[in-house]
Amino acid sequence: MAFEMKEKWDKYWANINNINLFLFIALVLDPRKKWGYMEWIAHEAYEKEKANLLCLNVEVTIRSLFEPYDES
Question: Where are the domains positioned within the chain?
Fold first, then answer.
């Protein structure tokens, strides 16, 4: 059973390029969690390089979503 669970984890979460970033964006937009919680989750689940890359991808995605609404 543990091997099957590990296969599922690897299928959906191991490759940070295949993760749906909107799951992490929802964490950032949740008033109870915010950015710090998302960073903590990323660093708990992945090694440092992958976690930093994931955080950068989430930040770039959030900025690109709000860019059209920026008035400056």
Answer: 2-69
16, 34, 49 from 67: Cα distances, Å: 24, 19, 27
Cα–Cα distance, 53 to 59 (Å, whole number): 10
Q: What gap in Å lies between CA 64 and CA 69, rounded to an integer?
A: 10
Whole-structure pTM value? 0.82
Give the separation between CA 16 and CA 41, rounded to whole angstroms: 13
Q: How confident is the model over 1-18, as pLDDT tens digits?
A: 999 998 988 888 888 888
CA-nearest of 47, 27, 48 to 37 is 27
CA distances from 19 to 48, 68, 71 (A): 17, 24, 31
Q: Which two tokens stand for residue 5?
A: 């669970």
